[in-house]
Amino acid sequence: MSSGKTLIDHASNPVKSKLINGSTGSATGYGDLEDYIMELQSRSLQNGSSENDKNGINIGNSVNSVINGETNVDPTELLLQLAQKEKDLILAAELGKALLERNEQLTRANERITEEYSHKLEQIDAMFKQREVTSFSKILFVLMNVHLQPVV
Fold this sequence. Notes:
InterPro entries: Spindly/BICDR_Dynein_Adapter. The chain is mostly helical. The chain has helices at residues 30-49, 59-67, 75-148; strands spanning 16-18, 24-26. The chain has one domain (16-148). The chain starts with 15 loop residues before the first strand and ends with a helix.
């Protein structure tokens, strides 16, 4: 069942996203994750304070009443609750997706940095070996000159 609102307006821009609360950000940007988390936290606070709605209907009791065949529950309220739960699920799914994308970015960056570090380490090792060879050659040259000089 769709409530008509979606978490992200994908038609506007595949990179820029629009959250339900109206803020925008890139789908993989760090600021966007903060927006998602803030949205989720505000939803949690709203849901916590609205467990008992204005009419005094407890959500758990509403579901139990419907299951038990009691019809004193307002169907509109149930639809609103279902729509809210759907929005929460969509929000959680988008948050999970954004976190996975961010994790992939960080993994790629980490691999790139590791590769650069390994390359620089190899360069340093090669320079050290070259210096070692050069020093060894100089020592050999000096020793050979000493042995080749006539003793007087």
